[in-house]
Model the fold of this input.
Amino acid sequence: MKILVTGGLGFIGSHTAVELQNEGYEVVIIDNCSNSSTDVLKGITAITGKTPIFEQFDLRDKLKVQDFFERHSDIAGVIHFAASKAVGESVEKPLLYYENNISVLVYILQELQKKEKTSFIFSSSCTVYGQADELPITENAPVKPAESPYGNTKQIGEEIIRDTCKVQPNLNAIALRYFNPIGAHPSAAIGELPIGVPQNLVPFITQTAIGLREQLSVFGDDYPTDDGTCIRDYIHVVDLAKAHVVALQRLIGAKNKTNFETFNVGTGTGSSVLEVINSFEKVAEQKLNYKIVSRRAGDIIAAYANTDKANNELGWKAKSSLDDALASAWKWEQKVRN
Ligand code: WQD
Done:
């Protein structure tokens, strides 16, 4: 069974391609390599022994999207990762985000409209909740006004899919709302490859530890949390990848039309920035050079998932601990730099 993974050379996409191949699916990747490299194909092959079909083009080219689906009429499912995802950049370049994250979604859904039956998994984010009123966060928590164009594209994307599923009997879809994906495949053949200065905490930690960055800045320790630093739900990227396969299988196996569903994909446990640093120092057996600086604009205080729905309805649960995830991130960083 052939599954399209858009953005499949990216961090989460590549790990999902591996898990799909492990489950016996034939994987087709479309990626424009704007934020990834074809070296990732070698990494995927090194892990599974199978090289995905790969086509490099920009999904903003509607004619190329149409041509692709005409040539690959046997696509049974789509996992759509391809999107721009830097919160800060989205504030600077909103139209880039609305074109890349919304127009592309519409082009793909328009192609799926023509097919007999397709299963569609959308890469969404806990960012749709903003600062939730209650923790842990359930899928019924209200979607708050987006704090960035990036977050808005995830909210709008979910609404576009919801509206389309209502009138398209041949389309079953699920949105997975990721919390904070971290780590790398245990083989260290694939991992996170941030371009330029990492915006996210864990790649900045590993790059500091390996000597690529001078010092980690901790953005504020005056938040109303136990140790004053922000709390997030850090989930191992392999656990996250497996959630995509399980969600896809639920749709492919559905005998009848399913309602559009959203699922929180996290560990259910919150960890503060200082807890992440302490965990890293333990697994890497070295001290990390960091300093406390002022808060970063736009950061929410705390977010961690109530994972009951994914556990009970998908039969999926994150297995890796924070230590495991950080150890895999550190192993990957050492591999990439040496
Ligand atoms: C985590 C914590 C920072 C860097 C973002 C996006 C979200 C999703 C995941 C795409 C925060 C602190 C960070 C640093 C720090 N991306 N931090 N020093 O902001 O929770 O989520 O990435 O889907 O949409 O918003 O992740 O890793 O940037 O920050 O102190 O150098 O680490 O303040 O408290 P975030 P993050």
Q: What stands out?
A: The first strand starts at residue 2 and ends at 6. The two ends are 38 Å apart (CA to CA).
